Amino acid sequence: MVPSCVNNRFKTCSVLPHIITRIISHLVYSVNSVSSVTYAVSLFFFFGAAAMEGRCAVETWAVGLSGTSCTPRVKFGLGTDVFFCTGSDEVYVFSTQERKLTAVLQFPDPVSDLVGSHDKQLLYVACRSGVYCVSLQFQLSRAPSSPADASSSLAELKIPSEFLVVAEEGVLSVLLVGSVFLTLSQTDTSWMLTLYKSSNYEMLSSFSLPLVSGVVHSDTEGQTAMRKRPVLICVHSNDATPPSSSEATLTDGHVRLESVLFKLLFGIDAALAKSPVILCGLPDGCLCFLPLRHPGSRLRVLRSLEQPVVFVGASVVMERGPGHAQCLVAVGELGKVVLIKTDKGGSEGGGNRTGFIEGCVPGPVMCGCVDKNCLYYSTGSDLLVLDLSEGLSRREGQEKDEETSRKTEAALRSPTSLNVCRVAALAEPTCNTAGEVQLLGLSVRGQLQRITLPAGREDARLSKEPSALVGRSVRDLLSAIGDVCERASVLKTAIKSKNQILRHLNQVLNISFLLIASASSEEHLPIQEKPIRCHGVTSWSRLLQKDSLNLTCVLDNPSPYILERGWTLSVAVFPLSYPPSAGGESSSTNFSFPFHNLHPGETLEVSLPLAAAGEASFPMTVSCSLIFSLASLLGEEAANLPGLQSSCISLPLNTLTVDWLHVLQVNSPIATHKKATSQSNNTTDTLQAFLRSRRIRCSGRGEGGGESASKPEREYSASIRVSSELLRDTLLLKSSDLDAHVQKWPPQNVGLSLLEWMLSEGPGGVTTGHQGDKIALSSSVVHAQGPDGHTVKLTAKEVNVEEGSAEKEESQTAVEVQVESSSIAAVCGLHHAVLRRVQTLLQRAPEKAASTKGVQSLGLRQVLQRAEHLLQQIQQSRISGAFGVGVSTGQMTRSLLSVYRELRENPLLIV
Amino acid sequence: MSDKMYQPLSLLYRWIQENNELVNKCKQRGGGDALSPDQNKPHLRWCSSEFHKLLKKIQGIPPLADYLQLELTVVYNVCLCSTAQSQFSEAELLLTQATERVLQMTGDAPVASDPPVFWRTVINSVGDTALNPCVLYLLCLQWAIWLSTCQLKIIQECQDELFSVFETLSTGVWDEGRSELREKSSDIPLLVMDPRRLIELLQICTIIAQGAESLSEGRSSEALSGLQTASSLPAPRTLIAYTHLLSGSCLAHMSCPQMALQCYRKALETDSRCVCALYQSMLIYRQLGNTQAEIQGLRLLHSTLMLPFATEPALADTRLLSPSLLLRSQSLSSLLSVPSALSVLHNLALKCVHHGRVSDGVEYYLDLLAVLHSEDQHGVHAEGPPLPSLPELYLQAGAALLMARRPADCMALCDEVITTTLELLPEKVVLAEPEEKCEAETRALCAEGDDRVAMLLWAGAAYLLQGHCHTQLKDWKQAVTHYTRCFNLLVKARFKKGSFQPQIPSADMVGKQGTDLCILQKLKGLSLAGRGISFTQTDQLREALRDLQLSMQAFPGVYLCTYRNPSLALCWTPRSCAAEYRNLVLHCQPREKQKKYTHINY
């Protein structure tokens, strides 16, 4: 049975890699930004102003936590807000006006998609468990505003499950079309598109499309892979008059398509009914559509890209009317670009037909977006722009040219690089007042970036600046260099301090791996081989006329690493078993000792009270662990990483056991009386003390075998037999390579030496400190006082074990250790402790070929029979106890006790 | 006191407690707010898994008589939850395991897998002990599983056992014993569903399923007797209505339409939501040729279907196992299917127009179009025949408007069709012979070609209707223009037969009625005839004569068009046209002109 707190420690251990990754990514980011600045500076000196002009400006606005469960998403939200999620369970709200994060919404599950409703100021967020609907204004007004928050004005909101509006599991994409709310989810065999009323979330209908399984990459990705989000957009026909003026401006995820193409793609019915059409680009490569307002319509496949669809959008290639897209663009993950447009009928008089132009761009496409005539897409390592109008207009002009298609493909194949890396999601492009195109991107690490493209890239190179402006621009550039230098020096100092932290972190990691490896690889590693370990010394002390037991824990660092600032030694003490009165709860006490530096070879000694006399129940387990707090590593920078304050690494060291033998207060024969009387002074119940002292004296007098006659009450006893040969081998072998005073022992007095060994030293790193009055045992009988005040008697005597068998009569000497006390708890505890000691003895014993000599065969059989009988008895009483039939509790306890005693008596010989 | 605190509670008692708590939670949630089954699913799943865990614990010890009763009760609860979630094989496995444990306890050898024999053995081996009711409950569940998985044959075989169970349980022999114990209900394990309710439900559902099966196999009279006895059983109204409905269907099959109508009426009286009865009676009126009643029926059916769908207030105890779960046979669901509200509305409109109630028909058509354009309409699926495509509906509505003397509205509708289709019309359309159409080309191309032909015909028909409108307004010039546009559009079509080159189709190529080619030729004939008549009005007699002759060549028999009933444009016959023309057009024309053209009629 592993105590729960130990379990918790191991759990915190497993989050270690995650936290460390976060720290490192944080550090690396700042280091990167420094290097990019220095790079820019050097570029500037090499290429002058021309190099600066061609680059686009990237401005990092905010950083979110990056997650891995879903593709990130960034969207323009209500007013000037931007929503973004990075695949974790958080949605960030960024205000472009104030240029800062205004809110963090935390959902119970990882967020897969989000959509905002403009008129009602609602935000719909799809999580694994369903779709949540949050009214942002309401939430923000309700958020607690503490003075600390007021300065940063960042509201962290936990969204409870009351906001769950659609309890559909595994929703990957959501879309809002008028009063209809759509969800797209994936089952094992199909895609499910479900329509809900957005007023009351009543399900309207549901459509399914079978999953195409044989798509590229699908089998290599396991369940752990990032779930790809299908693309979901709504297409309106341009001659469909918008029902209300608010919808005249298209919201995110809605595009207006030129009517001829609309009719060609989606049919006359959809056009006549003025129905919006839902277009889905699925991760299995299908591009399918559903007319929303047509009876009996179903999901139909428009085209298959044969690779996961990453982006679907509409582009105004040749501008005819205001803002009516003439071309649908779909982009696959592996770089396939499909343009869908109207083809004017050829010579054979085919009328208008749908034209599909396919092309391929290099690289995996992570995300994309379109504006009037450009497609922007990110491969992860670069952001590229593809001019769609080039390919299409050429096609338009040279109608019958055979080379057209080839040229189109060539145009599609030559995108222009924008030199922005690690973009994972893009929102729709916007134009600022200066006519520059601005993109809103989300980097792989969760940074929200605004990317401003250089205005009129091609024209700029051709036009010459007027000479009057040159002087001014030089001045500007010089001041810009000054700025950059200043920034670089600040960042350099930052690098220095971060290097320091990294070095520190390296030490921490070394120690962590050292301890984790030793903890996981060999559970039964002998104590000496643990890299960093604790051992303990117990001692009784007397303070304020009260006896109390202290444990001195010594932390040893033989490893080559320094335990630096930030480490804490934590010691948890809890009983191995607990009395029933505790109500089944183990009471554990934690002590923690922070320390500064512990160099290799140094030790740290701490002392802690185990228990006052008569309070604790033994044996106690003392589990030691080292805790490292990450917050201390970063210092004041820790404030930048929310959630880090509470995170720390906990590494378990070893576990010590303080058992009954450790806590015995041995009475030397002379001191017995004195101690008993002195104790009677300080105990409140004098009568009881008197009785106890009487009893001790009685037994003391009857020493030598007569105590059974003078027993004032029932004595409990248990015994263990160990072969003397084994003891001789182990104890004497041990003594020979230990200190000298043990060698004085006469070899025949094995019993005495066993007792002395048991009392002086213990397995598992705990020793008993007897504070000077080193007991020199005169006889093989020891009287002692347990922690609960009961006297116990330990006897070790050599006996002959008779082995009766038909063939040969053989006798073997053994040492019988007998434990006697009037308290059953004491007997149990001591028996347990003695057994533990003998176990370690056995582990230590040298291997012997035929030590058992086939003895005990008869005895074994008898014992086995007896054990079987006892087992039956136990089972019977347990079953009857479980069903509450038959015997009463008292009876059952009695029968179990007798079984227990029978087990403890008549032990087997341990050889 | 303290002794009592530390005394370990009896396991039996604890398990009973756990079971009862779960049952209460199960019922509480189910009985509380009226949740749809979908929303209740997670809760049910949770209950089921909790019951499973409990059962695992109980089955950890060897079967003993003392607590086998508890075990069987828990098995009943688990299986009921599993069945309610349609996990039949899982439930069946649990049942088998439980009965095997019963046999193990009584010491009987496991028996053959033949269900009737098996259950008989189990019941006999238990004898008349306290376990008997528990085993019977399990048999009930087995019955439910058989019914849900449509294994009616096995039910037939086990009929004796099942009826004996029914009798024993319905007489309530053990009920006294249980009610006695009910006072200290913490000591007896509870059930998630009263077995008596369950068995009542099972009985009537079995009869309904069997009736539907026999009916679909044509053994109507056999089914009828069973269904009629079932109609007096205690059961939810819906199920009683089903028995009446099926009886009606049996009678209809046995050609007793009046008696069938009586049964349908009873079904409706029992359960007003039984739309199927309404639909079936409408079909019978149609069969009998009672148009008025049919239209009335359609109207009622439509208004019933438009009512907000009210969830049926289920009986407290049958909530877990709904009748729809037990009645899943194909034959029954096909008997119960009803077309969608839109389809009914379209039918209603068409019927009205065909039977002289044009103004009503127009209103229905306008309703239909309004529904199709409303934002609340979201492609709801429904069984039954799909609606015609939207342009066709527009044209039908336009024709109805024309008949109702609203030419302006008709023209607006036709305009819509024309503007939508015109941009997409190719220079040439090839009509292929239907037999070999799909052999040479791929299906997709074929569908696209079809689409183009359909578009051509829609645009042509729309022009024709506009021409008619202008004729009605006596704007002959405009009429000529529109008829000409129609004709010009139609000549774009070429006909391709076999491996020959596409050619201009002529009347002698029309093989079958109703094909695209036939319609094309008819439209040609009608547009030419219309133009001819318009020319006569403007006294361009030479042109008139030419057009009328051409019309005769295009489609012999269509000499004239009809002004009153163009909605039947696609199923006009020469005879009806002639009659219509004589009755209407010539009636209102000046006398001399009427005389002039009488020779054309015959």
Notes on the structure:
The complex is a heterodimer of chains A (911) and B (602). Chain A has 911 residues and is an alpha+beta fold. In chain A, 31% of the residues lie in helices and 32% in strands. Chain A is elongated. Chain B is elongated, with a radius of gyration of 35 Å. The termini of chain B are far apart. Mean pLDDT of chain B is 77; it is low at 1-7, 31-35, 179-184, 436-446 and 559-602. Chain B has helices at residues 2-6, 11-31, 37-58, 65-84, 88-106, 115-126, 131-148, 152-157, 159-171, 173-182, 195-216, 220-230, 237-253, 257-270, 275-288, 291-306, 323-326, 330-336, 341-354, 358-373, 390-403, 407-422, 437-440, 443-472, 476-490, 516-537, 541-554, 574-588, 591-601, and strands at residues 429-432, 493-496. A two-stranded parallel sheet of chain B has the order 1-2. In chain B, helix 12 (220-230) packs antiparallel against helix 13. At the A-B interface, strand 14, helix 6 and helix 18 of A face helix 2, helix 3, helix 21, helix 22 and helix 24 of B.
**C-alpha end-to-end distance of chain A:** 29 Å
Share of helical residues of chain A: 25-40%
Largest sheet of chain B: 2 strands, parallel
Q: How far apart lie the N and C ends of chain B? A: 115 Å
Radius of gyration of chain B: 35 Å
Biggest β-sheet: strands ordered side by side in the sheet of chain B: 1-2
